């Protein structure tokens, strides 16, 4: 049985079909594109326009890091802070003192003392030396001992070594102390401090 060829639409049918298609709307409205979210969306968080201040470079497993991330620098040690502090005494005297060429006129040893014991002893010693007209004194603190069991809270090695410079800058000692430096190796090295006093009036 031969197939019948479909009848072609008449001119009137085409006009009717065209009118119908213009009135039809999509059954599923288009969703807004993710790149342009609605302004009223409370959950929309715009992406930051600036890039982070550092970039993570390609690396291999086991490779040593050669650059430090921001904020990873450690605080300088007491030795570094004293070495970088401005010189307040005569520069010639300062150079001779650091070379161990100046002999301290008096010394005090705070070994074995607690902070509560050492503070008043150091205060009396410094004020007394200033009243006696001394200029260079030696304060021995020791380097501190390594603890076998530091416990859950780390304790800084050499508590007196770190605390004594603070005391020497604070009242009442700050008004009579002109300069503080680590001692030469012949006078105790990093376990002692040269304290250069102001002239007594």
Give an overview of the whole structure.
With 201 residues, the protein is α+β, with helices and mostly antiparallel strands. The chain has a domain at 85-145 and 157-196: Ribosomal Protein S8, Chain: A, domain 1. It contains five helices and four strands. It has helices at residues 11-23, 78-84, 91-98, 115-131, 159-169; strands at residues 106-109, 136-140, 177-182, 192-197. Strands 1-2-4-3 form a four-stranded mixed beta sheet. Helix 4 (115-131) links the parallel strand 1 and strand 2 (136-140). The N and C termini lie far apart (134 Å). The model has no long low-confidence stretch (mean pLDDT 79).
How is this fold's topology laid out?
Blueprint: H1 11-23, H2 78-84, H3 91-98, E1 106-109, H4 115-131, E2 136-140, H5 159-169, E3 177-182, E4 192-197
Parallel strand pairs: 1-2
Antiparallel strand pairs: 2-4, 3-4
Helix pairs in contact: 4-5
In short:
The protein is α+β, with helices and mostly antiparallel strands.
What profile does the largest beta sheet have?
Answer: 4 strands, mixed
Quantity of strands, as a count: 4
Report the principal-axis shape: rod-shaped
**Computed CA radius of gyration, to the nearest angstrom:** 40 Å
- The number of helical runs is 5
CATH class of the domain at 85-145 and 157-196: Alpha Beta
Strand order of the largest sheet: 1-2-4-3
Mean pLDDT: 79
In angstroms, what separates the terminal alpha carbons?
134 Å
Q: Which residues form runs of ≥5 with pLDDT under 50?
A: none
Helical proportion, percent range: 25-40%
What name does CATH use for the topology of the domain at 85-145 and 157-196?
A: Ribosomal Protein S8, Chain: A, domain 1
Pattern of helices and strands: HHHEHEHEE
Tell me the CATH architecture of the domain at 85-145 and 157-196. 2-Layer Sandwich
Beta fraction: 5-15%
- Which structural category do the helix and sheet elements fall into? alpha+beta
